[in-house]
């Protein structure tokens, strides 16, 4: 296992291929976090 192995992440980086272990950059969409609005009580 290592740089010559197609099934490992390092091997895919060396060969320039993609797959389950090394998804492309836009494969997963990042969900925006909900913005918490704080109320200020002036009492």
UniProtKB/TrEMBL annotation:
Keyword annotations of the record: Ribonucleoprotein, Ribosomal protein
Entries under Pfam families matching the protein: Thx
Domain of life: Bacteria
GO CC annotation terms, alphabetical: ribonucleoprotein complex; ribosome
Family annotation (InterPro entries): Ribosomal_bTHX, Ribosomal_bTHX/bTHXc/bTHXm
Signal peptide: none
Family, as annotated: Belongs to the bacterial ribosomal protein bTHX family.
NCBIfam families cross-referenced by the UniProt entry: ribo_THX
The protein's name: 30S ribosomal protein THX
